[in-house]
Amino acid sequence: MSADSVAAVKREILVRHLETWAPQALHRGRRAAYVHGYADDVPDLAEAALRVFTEQSDLVRGRELTMLAIGSEVGDVAARLGKLPPAPGLTVLTIGGGTQERIGVALKAAGALRVPMLGFLDASSASGPPSPATLAALATGKPAEILVVLPSGSSVPDFREALNTAGFPLVAAVELAVSDDPAEIVVYATTLGKSLESFKDVLWAVDEFAGVRYRDPGDPERHLIDISLEPHPGPLRRELLAHLGQAGSATVAELRTFALTETVYRASDATRVVHALLDAGSVTRRPEQGRLGGDVVISL
């Protein structure tokens, strides 16, 4: 049951994010590309992604949206995707031969470079994380976004560094936990701050599935967090206090950015926690009075 629940959470995160991403991408330009790697490992996810686009056919009409489904053996994936109704402006291509081996060539062949691009790579069953070349290929999107599922026990700091090097400056990660044991990790990276905020909203809006909770990879106490529109602030409180302990002080804007990019939480959650810390006397502010604006300095 736990494995099914984790799969359901991954599916909903992907579907909800695609429902947000597609209108934004096609609003930015007449062309956009969605790249679904390791498509043959979990064909249900590739089918769910295509359903988002076919059910929004009015959105695609007058635009060009290309979906690339890449994997090792994609015969079954191609058959399943071929059963879905076509949509004007939507092109679906299935490419075999391996995700990491074929992704760069596939993007060039499809003319999908330098257009709004979202890549989804469920590498939870792969032998390792996506290669630097794979990440760099997906970073050619203008703008570029990527969703990656890493196997349990993966090093988030190492993968964050690889994403930064590839051209993704903004990264967030969340562990899909069913127990105290290490679990699969969903990593999102983008070149746009607004896209990261949008993803965080999606993350906390998914339906709660039995036994699945979030864990912040940066929380040393590995606290489990129920999926909720108003998540428990405990881990964020600890991480903000630890950050202030290292930095000495930070503006509210800097703390909001820290929460957005370095934790599983949203910027708005940081504002809520800072208010609580001030009320408890755990931190001080400068100036002492007035609205808690972004330029207010917070200190231990």
Short recap of the structure:
The chain is an alpha/beta fold and 300 residues long.
Task: Please give a structural write-up.
The chain has 11 helices and 12 strands. The protein is of the alpha/beta class. The chain has 2 domains: about 1-225, 3-Layer(aba) Sandwich (Rossmann fold), CATH 3.40.50; about 235-300, Arc Repressor Mutant, subunit A. The strands form 2 sheets. It has a 9-stranded mixed β-sheet with strand order 3-2-1-4-5-7-6-8-9, with helices on both faces. A hairpin with an 8-residue loop joins β8 and β9. The protein starts with a helix and ends with a strand.
Tag the structure with descriptive keywords.
300 residues; alpha/beta; Rossmann fold; Arc Repressor Mutant, subunit A; 2 domains; nine-stranded mixed sheet; three-stranded antiparallel sheet; 11 helices; 12 strands
Radius of gyration: 20 Å
In the residues, how many domains can be counted?
2
Assign an overall shape. globular
What is the helix fraction of residues, given as a range? Answer: 40-55%
Secondary structure elements and pairings:
Blueprint: H1 2-28, E1 31-37, H2 43-54, H3 57-60, E2 64-70, H4 75-82, E3 90-95, H5 99-109, E4 117-122, H6 132-138, E5 144-150, H7 156-166, E6 170-177, E7 185-190, H8 193-205, E8 213-215, E9 224-225, H9 234-247, E10 249-251, H10 252-262, H11 267-280, E11 284-286, E12 297-299
Parallel strand pairs: 1-2, 1-4, 2-3, 4-5
Antiparallel strand pairs: 5-7, 6-7, 6-8, 8-9, 10-12, 11-12
